[in-house]
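Schema walkthrough. Field components (list of strings):
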Amino acid sequence: MSTKDSARDSDTRQAGSLRLAAGILAGRASASLIRAARAGGATTVPGRVARFLIPDLLPRLARRLRHGVILVTGTNGKTTTARLVSALLAAAGHRPIHNRAGANLPAGIAAALVGGAGVDGRLQGDVGVFEVDEAALPGVAEAVRPRAVVLGNLFRDQLDRYGEVDLVAARWRRALDALGGATTVLYNADDPLVADVARGRTPSRTFGVDDPDLRPGAVLEHAADARYCYRCGVPYVYRTVTLGHLGDYRCPRCGVARPALEAAARAVRLAGVEGSSFTLASGGMALALRTMLPGLYNVYNVTAAVATALWAGVPPEVVAPTVAAFAPAFGRGERLHLDGHPVHLLLAKNPAGFNEVLRTVLADARPLVAVIAINDLAADGQDISWLWDVDFELLREAARLVVATGRRREDLAVRLKYAGLVPGTVVVEADEGRALVRGLAALDPGQPLYVIPTYTALLRLRGLLTRRGLVRGFWEA
Amino acid sequence: MVLRLCHLYPDLLNLYGDRGNILTLTHRARARGIAVEVTEVPVGRPLGDPRHYDLFFLGGGEDRQQALAAADLAGEKGEALRAAAADDAVVLAVCGGYQLLGHYYRPAEGPDLPGVGLLDVTTHHPGPGARRLIGNIVVRWADGPHPRATLVGFENHGGRTRLGPQARPLGRVVVGFGNNGEDRTEGAVQGTVVGTYLHGPLLPKNPAFADHLLARALARRYGPVALAPLDDAVEEAAHRAAVRLAGAARAWR
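Field assembly_structure (string):
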């Protein structure tokens, strides 16, 4: 190489660094502008601006993370799992960069990196923890070359956006094929569809729930999505069903079964909206864990996060205290207080998750008062047919009042009528604020109000509560 | 009076809350004092005597499930369904089930799935890259109780269905795509057999259509049946909201 060439090369490098700095500056400036204008959380625009200026921003910033990137995907639980992974790594002395506001498309991940970068492009963190939309996984994985991918579950969700659950599984399979052996796959072995994607890959780690006493009987609910062996087409035989189609399954024809669990939640004790406790068995260790995150779905999230943290070298002794102190993410079992009543915000966006939320609130023996808000915007899934797969029949005896609100409140009212709720226990209220007021008015002193919204309905309801100064903005949560 | 419902492949073709249709038929019959017997017939189980049933329902499924159902229908069940339809039993099929009642379904990849041939329709998938026809749909119902009667629902299909001369459309598309996104037709009717892309819980929000099917199903065994009116305020509100939301979506396009 001649001196001239090497000088030109160095010029190019410098120009590249300058361009990167300009992109980061522009992204950060847009974030400041948005915050100053109180226009929202500024969770994706900075990423879009920076990526417009620097198309290869994601790979360029990601490879500057000394300990690499961990991606978390799945239909349910991404936000909670990724937040807990980040908290566990931080407790072990790492400095994670994390898209904590839940913006999980490439622009949101770029925004998190821009937010964590100095103008010189140097990152103020040493590891990336990003939740990724299940359909965006291939593109993001290709860009950031993760050290680990955590696959949570695949439920029927937003079918109008992605077509079919099988298509998402096929995309994951291709994404993992493209990554190769430098990436560890940590996956939920209790989900037959996920296990089929990840089975036999190396390196990989499995996690799941191993507690035959948890839900006696092996009966699949209406929400179950993967009843049939992917290879044989015959129904799986379940020894236990935990939630949706998750459980301990086996194909009676080809013998494909749930892989052995390398991290297993055992002796699970659910305490309704108060959380749960269980023992996490992993590699000869048994960690006694207690979490304030409600419901069995969060036992899966905690198990996934702890398995990932242990894999990443987080010392076991910091795990239990970090898990115990970990507060629910935005709307995922968040608690607040309103007019002397506890208010529980429980996001529900698909049948399996909704059934879990219903079981969790029914652990409260008092006649139930709930506000259920169903929207059908793009982020919720525009098809609300799934309401008919939710077991609302569970509310038949227990409901004192259900206030139906959101864009599809009338659909919900029909569903509740056909679920056999006593006439008069369901009211339809177009205005979300009034829906909350009507719910509160029906409570006994000190009784909790359960608010169960889809994603965009959660944003609206939480916006109303934020304006009353009751909760912080979700980008701060 | 007993209404005998046969729910075909409840385990295989139940992609979009299809059981809402069974719940609706059951509820609306019982509200009139008509007893209801629902028999679930999964893959591999024989249907038995087709004359036993007044109404058959088939839901939708993903490609893999649909292929399993098609293989099962190629045997005894397809024969039984043809016998039942010839005997004027009502058959309602949505989405993937609708495609399987035609002559064949040609998927994006792989061999044709043979159909039952109860509807003079054929379905072709234009290829893996083709866009799915997805969204809220409003249809002017051809056999509705008044000329402006509508059916509302949600569609999500890759296959494009075309009608032959023996079948007539269930209705004309007001908002949405319908059979193929081109000729504005939606669904197919042939005798007492009805297929539609309005998937999943179609009947809860279309109570008049539910009653129309109910009356036809009962008429074969019991002669003309006058169904007493029900309080459908909740259902009608949901129907009107669906029309409004679909219209608003169109204005956005």
